[in-house]
Fold each of these.
Amino acid sequence: MAGGKLGLKYHCVEVIAPGSGCAAARELKGVRLLSADAPRLPLATCDQPSECKCIYRHFDDRRQGPRRDDEDAPISRPYRGPERRKQRGRRESDYN
């Protein structure tokens, strides 16, 4: 992996533009790109390539925030309806 730490399969970067930055850098604000897919700096559509001060911020993983939808959800309450199970289990100890 070019430029990344060995063993980090999803090493990624984010383009950081100091100040307001050019329009190309603003489009990439908050977007994490795999290191292998990251564009070269200055960006190809940069308005001021000779004065560009954009840098990469490196991350070990491109994922951010909760990985599952239910991690943000409050804990669900247990079932409070009537017991609908009529039979006991199949174990011998269930009948003693």
Amino acid sequence: MFDDWYRPNARLEFPKGGSGALIDALVRGLEKHGGRLELNAHVDEILVEGGRAAGVRLRDGSKVAAGRAVVSNATKWDTVPLLPADVAEESGLRPEADATGQCESFMHLHLGIDATGLPDDLEMHHIVVNDWEAGITAPQNLCLVSIPSVIDPTMAPEGKHVIHAYTPGNEPYSLWEGMDRKSPEYKALKEERAQVLWRAVEKAIPDVRSRVEIEMVGTPLTCERFLRRTRGTYGGTGWVGGDAGLGIPSPATKLEGLFCVGDSAFPGPGVPSVAAGGLICANTIGSVWQQLDGLKKVAV
């Protein structure tokens, strides 16, 4: 990534309108093809009937029946608790989850700042490696900073900038495990562990602290709570290879009708892993003719 990033004329892209614009586009595509998105619909259980995944039960007690399949885009670690213990074992999900390594979590710093007097050519993306000898996975060694409002003014009010700084998958969950989020100790650790992000932002905007109007800090416990991810993990670091010997497993499980496409089921963490797993899953569930028709629609 570093090599590609610093090639002449290389650019790291950012979606116009922010990540929300991507979500809106996906929802439009879903609804265009007859799908429906339900928010605040937490899944508490994957229903198993007659030896197959038959649907899900939501937190409010309501049930959603599955037509052809239940597709989980949660990690394997977070999908396993949704199944009866014996089914999780027999489906192969629990053994695969146990065999898959976990990336560490994140520290996040979200800022809204006064942009008065900042240069017009302020770069959108910045990367800080504090110690090249330590490696980019060392705790708090690698920091990324994005200031998307420098190229998309709709991301912030006039005269302001939004900033997101984060440590990508190198914040140890063990430092936070068992902490009370309302305790003074938690607040103190948040402030301490966020300093590396402040220093990274200061390399681009030295007086940023005096410009801050909005500040939000996220921790591994934040990721665990709001994203419902085991240990606030960023995804998998390893995976179990399939029988074909290709090293890339199928999204299908041994439980008929259950597919798992989260970022622990395909090599690598994060969105690329989920997107690739979802694509493979769609090709697995859909017929050849549906796939050919889809390819015609996207062909250039």
Amino acid sequence: MKILVYGINYKRVPVEIREQVSLSETGRELILHIIREEGIAEEAMVLDTCNRTEFYLVGADRKTALEHLLVHIGEVNKAETLPDSSYFYSLTGRKAVRHLFRTGASLDSQVVGETEVLGQLKDAYRTALDCGTARFVLNKTLHKAFGASKRVQSETSLCEGAASISTSAVQMLSEDMGGLKGSKILVIGAGKTAETAVRVLAGKELSEGICANRSVNSAEEMLKNVRQSLRKDTVTSLRHSNNKKRVDEKCSKTTLPDEAAFPWAAAGLDALPESLSRVDGVITATGAEGSVLKGDEIIDVLRERDEMLHIVDVAVPRDVDPTLAKLNKVLLRDIDDLNVVINKSMEIRRSELPRAEAIVEQELEKFYDWIDSLRVVPTIKKLKAFANRQQQKEIERQCKMSADQDRRDLQRFSEGLIAKLLHRPFSYLNQISTERSESEVMAAMNVIHEMFGLDEDE
């Protein structure tokens, strides 16, 4: 099974290089359509997160596929320069599938044990399905990866109390500022990362919180979701306290938590200069293709500040113009800086890594046992064995009271009949093994296995 992975990630490439090949949702769709239309691969999926951009290809030419992809990434991103192929890792076959399983199980994440990457992987899979580039091989492989991730989450403690990029960003901001109580914080973005950051910040006793986004409605909706989630958590906690009177009193307040406990408001990006003039810290996590905080637009505001402005930019591409770090009143962090915070929390989860890795290896072996069973020769052998078993069952049923000669005659007759019935299917299987793509052959083998229940008798 010719699965090929090309990737660039946080382990070996800094954010200023990664952001050059990072693709927006529209960009990922365009790349998948190009792969399909130009025949670069039989199947394809693009996984793009703040820490990685990876291309999963089936049936691609390893010698030429990456160069073709880089050309098209440059076109889609309208990039003047792109990193060359030496920045990318490439994995094939079992190594590629193992990498996918480990990625889905958060064993290859910057924050080991975080669960965000599984959602991102599922989103990437859905996009590939919508674009028609995920068929038999990727369908089966992705679902096995999801299953491996589920086992890691349920059978180990790797994900218990695990930090995420969002929580690590809040922690770094708190450490830089010497605490967040009573501070004013701006969160830029309204996606999942920003929402998680707001949720964590809601427990830090801020004096003011601002969520800025290109769509104010999206920011308002996100804040509403966080508020409702916090209310639900509060009610659940009260119920566990077995104080019915207190529960009834609190549950009657539909605005729980109240304004003092959740001092957040939504704003548009046009309000950023005014917001930056009064906040103490910023976490930015948008999906914008270019800088959201540009030096020429806000530099005057930042120069007039009396106090230090602390910024944690976890977006890729980066939201903040890196030249702003040169200002005396700005402390700018990017996603690569989070490793300091992340390493502190990793000690708790290191003991679970061997168990999680073992689960991935078990699921990988099971997956490849299944893959091997779908090859043409094993399938033909299984189909022939199935026919022989049915033949012997029928002979036994018909010849319970018959003479030995009758049994021999029926044996010869049934063997000849089975040979004639299976001749054409066997010829077809051998033919498609040389004329069709591997993905199509495997899909055909799978149909035969399911049709005759070839794996049920094992």
Amino acid sequence: MKLRYLTIGVVVLMACSCNSLRSLMRSGQGISSNPEAPPARLITEIPFVQFTGGVIIIRGSINDSPDSLNFILDTGSGGISLDSTTCHRLGLEVLSSDRFIRGIGGMKRLFYAKDNSLLLPGLKIDSLDFHISNYDFISSVYGVQIDGIIGYSFLKRYIIKVDYDSLKLFVYTPGNIHYGIKGQLLHPSIRNIPVIGASLKNQDKYDMRYFFDMGAGLCLMLSNRFAADSCLFCGPRKRKHKFIHSEAQGLIGKISMTQTVVQGLQVGRYYFHNVPTYLFDDVSNVTAYPELGGLVGNDLLRRFNVTLNYPDDEIYLEPNTHFKEPFDYSYTGLVMYFIDGHVTITEVNQDSPAEKAGLKPGDVIMAVDRNFSNNIQQYRELLKAAGKKIQLIVLRDGQLREVRMKIQSIL
């Protein structure tokens, strides 16, 4: 099972505007809806790397510090944030507030560092108030230090083209921009976090609204209340689906989830078959159900080159070279993190391929199919091959063991 991790967090979660679903889904091509504005001007190009699920990592620094930091680019973040350890290392003053962050996994009080600057290649952004969170857990997910999350506070100021073919962000001034003719223009509701309309199919068709969350390393995530009220998996439909225990990491903490597959999802005019889906209990009401049904994540959105035009409430999707890549249906039942310099198994699901192979919590993964890189990202990629028998070398009680495991499919 490839683990997915969310970074969605809203300081003040606002209900969707009263725009109809039709207005959220209407399409167009060509220039933006602001033709009287001056042309948008390219400011800079910023390289990025992709981690599991298409999550985007960019490098930057804070104020006059020479330290180069890792930031997740996240449309599911209602602000901008720094890791608490990074904040302490940089010597930033931390202030308390009477506000709370609401995110997947719960709520917590907001602490922040006021009036700082973010420096990205070719760009300096001043007057930023960074929310302060502990990202140790997220760092253990990706195997590198995650120093912060860049969201609405940055995105609202510019037009951002995210090009997954060149692995670059193109940052423009707000203004009149030509999107092209090969894609589709969406008109989301953007109140800190973009909300789009989409059609879900699981025998019947369900029109609903979802967060557009490029910080979520998954395809689709639905609240259990939406799934139950819509009867997505009732009766014969439930018997046609596999339901696998899983977990995710939200802004506030780790949560249990259920992994399955829905028949189809349509975003704009683009339809995807057999979409891997997670179901979760939205205990903190992040989705404001029944306003929203869940979120569309970046393992699906990375199949487009995406233009984020927050100033004009527009998002442009253009299929890229990854558009037809198969989804990940793999299932191993093991949970692993990068802990104290080692890729360590922390949980093994009952009756899973990992348990049947004899893997145990505490095992340190030394190699996957002769890959001794100690790179958790590479190991997760190797564990995506549904139906394949994989060789692992693990360290247990000071002894090396060879384990063979057949990866199953959640279909």
